[in-house]
Amino acid sequence: MKILVVEDEAGLADVITRSLEREHYVVELARDHRSALLKIADHAYDVILLDIMLPGGSGLDVLRALKQQGTPGNVIIISAKDSLEDKLTGLDLGADDYLTKPFHLAELNARVRSVLRRKALGGGNGISAGNLRMDVDGRSVQVDGAEVALNRKEFDTLQHLLLNKDRLVTRGALAEHVWGDHADGGDDLDFIYSQIKNLRRKLKQAGATLEIQAVYGIGYKLVEP
Question: Domain spanning 2-119 has what CATH number?
Fold first, then answer.
């Protein structure tokens, strides 16, 4: 899952980023109002952690832009401002949660998991399709109750495909959600083919009823034939 951290305080942004990466999220960073607007215009995120006080503008304007785009950003406001008016404005503009600085990283991680469960997983912590079940929090996959060993990128790739089952996922979108900014250097995106090839082999060996279909030159689709 991919998270955007919009925070201008360098030390805090780095601490948040490292904490989220330890939880196996792909994390991108915007340090000002303009960068945040550019990021949300060009990319989709599973969760956005948004500070209100930003160089060049307000985080609330970023929320307004998300609302105008009709983009479900799953936004958690993180701000030193603790006024009721700010909270109500943020929630009215579509924020899902509001966390006041200073906060414990454990609480932040819990809030992120909670938002993801509500929005992407329907309140649970697992995804089931066919004879496969994925435990998102435990980062495990089972086929007919038997564990399937996946590396980090294979797990993240399968998770994104499961969340978009029966829908075409372009190679670019898959690269962004699994590799984040690090995908920018791979113009041909051949590294995705390698991950998909390994993932297909492991699912087939485990007897999964799901199949990853290639749409030539565009991307992939997870289906149950």
Answer: 3.40.50.2300
